[in-house]
Design brief:
Layout (H helix, E strand, L loop, with lengths): L4 E7 L8 E8 L6 E4 L4 H8 L5 E3 L3 H8 L8 E3 H8 L7 H9 L7 E4 L2 E5 L5 E3 L5 H28 L2 H8 L1 H13 L5 H26 L10 H9 L8 E3 L2 H11 L8 E2 L2 E3 L4
Parallel strand pairs: 1-4, 4-5
Antiparallel strand pairs: 1-2, 2-3, 6-7, 7-8, 9-11, 10-11
Length: about 280
């Protein structure tokens, strides 16, 4: 098998209708990544069209976008999210989180979604629409992502090979990434009229549930339930921190004293504090 090649593209938006800003690539057996702006070089096109060269990416958007714009991506596609899921199905699968978890590396992620549109954080701290970002900075960002994806692929592959997961992944799961990609490219028939009616119905339900959440959780009106960071902060914020001592009211202290009196001399109940880890 030829050495897999890692690919990553940056586009002006999040749909197939958006335009290419740059493409980055790195053969997994080489040290450095490459990047080209506004077009796909001929040598990259040849490698992507070669079915004997496996491709690696963090999702399926890149292969789908390239194929829809006349750059066929043939051969096996190693999806980093699927590989990470097989290792541990209970963890987030975003590239940034996987980098922290397995490479102990904090990525410099500069692209985020704002009101459904991608914005880019420039070197000077300004946030601008991705399509208006300095090309040199976007390309540098892309190269860093490709290098991190390559390191992550090598780590996950080694870990799967050491644990025998690789022998299961390649024959059982790898083929379905191509199946899913083909499904995304070919699409599915959709009843547009029924879909529009369902959208109206669900929008109304969503607004009722949103207002109910704001009221019951006492959240500010500006809370955005569609924001991943805001929702994560709400769901997983720290409620309390366990310390070496817990404070109890008088009734609980009395109950504890009556329960442990004469039975547990090592339980220290004094002044409203109970040591959780007595010496």
């Amino acid at each position: 098998m030829k050495s897999p090649i890692v690919i990553d593209i940056e586009t002006t938006g999040l749909t197939s209708a958006d335009e290419l800003m740059c493409i980055g690539w790195q053969p997994s057996d080489e040290e450095e990544a490459n990047c080209a702006g506004l077009y796909v070089p001929d040598e990259v096109r040849r490698v992507l069209a070669d079915p004997t060269v496996p491709k690696v990416e963090a999702g399926l958007f890149d292969a789908q976008w390239l194929t829809e714009h006349g750059v066929p991506v043939e051969g096996d596609v190693y999806n980093l999210q699927v590989m990470a899921w097989l290792i541990n199905e209970n963890t987030p699968l975003g590239l940034e989180w996987l980098s922290i978890r397995y490479l102990h590396h904090q990525m410099d992620k500069r692209i985020r979604s704002s009101v459904g549109h991608p914005v880019f954080k420039c070197d000077d701290g300004r946030e601008v629409p991705l399509a208006e970002a300095p090309m040199s900075e976007v390309m540098a960002y892309n190269i860093r992502d490709v290098e991190t994806s390559t390191k992550l692929f090598l780590y996950l592959r080694k870990r799967m090979q050491d644990s025998a997961w690789w022998d299961f992944y390649v024959p059982e799961h790898l083929q379905f990434t191509r199946v899913l990609l083909n499904m995304q490219l070919r699409g599915l028939p959709v009843d547009l009229e029924a879909s529009a009616g369902l959208e109206v119905e669900l929008d109304e339900q969503s607004e009722v549930l949103h207002q109910s959440l704001l009221e019951q959780a006492k959240l500010p009106a500006a809370f955005n339930g569609n924001s991943g960071p805001q929702m994560a902060n709400f769901l997983f914020r720290k409620v309390f921190e366990l310390t070496d001592q817990l404070e109890y009211d008088e009734w609980t202290i009395g109950a504890l004293k009556s329960c442990v009196q004469g039975e547990h001399d090592d339980c220290n109940v004094d002044g409203g504090l109970v040591e959780t880890y007595p010496e």
